[in-house]
Design brief:
It contains nine helices and no strands. The protein is mainly α. The longest helix is centred in the middle third of the chain and has 28 residues.
Amino acid sequence: MTRPCVAVAQPATPCLVPIAASIAAIGLMNHAFNVVACADDLSDAQKTRITEALAGSVGSEGLVAGQEEDLHGLDETLPRERALEVMHRRKTGALFGAACGIGAIVADAPNESADALHEFGMRLGHAFQTLDDVLDASATQESAGKDVGNDAGKPTLVAFHGLDAARAAAFAQRDAAIEMLPDVCRPQLAGYADLLVATLMKRHDAA
């Protein structure tokens, strides 16, 4: 009698975890394009603009470039703090920027407002990444809700100037993001930016 083939999930070995995470990320990024393609309530023009925004956020000028720099080092042709900012805007800011810019496209906002919201997201993502580096250097695994200590030896504002200066920079980055908001959505999104930063700081303070 032939036994049915049953797939049994096995615990991932440590060396396979990064590979599994990369495969999952690729799957999620591709699924995003499928969601856009299948959205019946979007016009063809909106789908085109959203697809361009998604491709730009994860491509060679977005997440892929930022992750490559995070793994192999900053752009040595730039001053180190400017190179770090570029990496943060690519690595994290691009995803925040895409989310905000795509929201504007779906809402049929004017191009000027869509560009402003995209830049708001880019700058807020920069602030988020800076605070994430602060958490990595100062929080416990329990308070941070994730592994910490992964940035040892990597270029971060914490490594360059210390925790206090990095926190202050993150607050300034948040304020710069809020300054980009159009008046029509400033109260709601400024409140979101404040809440995001406050939530991360609570994790730091709980350490």
